[in-house]
Amino acid sequence: MDGTRLHAHAAARADELPGAGLEHPFGPEHEVYKVRGKVFMLLSAAVGHEIVTLKARPADGAVLREAYPEVSPGYHMNKRHWITLSPGGTLDAALLADLVTESYLLVVEGLPRGVRPVDPETFGRREG
């Protein structure tokens, strides 16, 4: 996936998430997605190409970095709890959407129950 599509797919998924909003606290070249004031995704081209930075469980981040060369520790973020996605490789739109959603849910889990826009335990789960 090229950088333009990487950003477009990530932004499209974030725009679908309840309570998510786009801000530009670091200038127009950095898109910061938040839920209830907490960051769950950053889009930029700070390293010379488009990147997406997302929150991830440490074990999941380690597995993703091992499996995908386009996944690296979070750029300018805690390297244990954040990952950065770069263009290229085999990362597809479905996995990208799942990673954006997971980042969002990790942040929602940390919010007080009264301000959570969704229940992170049940959001997105289908009845079987």
3D structure, described in words:
- The protein is an alpha+beta fold.
- Helix content is 32%, strand content 22%.
- The protein has 3 helices and 6 strands.
- The chain has helices at residues 3-16, 58-67, 93-109; strands at residues 20-23, 31-35, 38-44, 51-55, 71-73, 82-85.
Structural class call reads: alpha+beta
- Strand fraction equals 15-25%
Distance between the termini: 32 Å
The amount of helix comes to 25-40%
Weakly predicted, low-confidence segments: none
Could you give the count of β-strands? 6
Sum up the structure in keywords.
128 residues; alpha+beta; six-stranded antiparallel beta sheet
Short synopsis of the structure:
The chain is α+β, with helices and mostly antiparallel strands. 32% of the residues lie in helices and 22% in strands.
Write the topology of this structure.
Elements: H1 3-16, E1 20-23, E2 31-35, E3 38-44, E4 51-55, H2 58-67, E5 71-73, E6 82-85, H3 93-109
Antiparallel strand pairs: 1-2, 2-3, 3-4, 4-6, 5-6
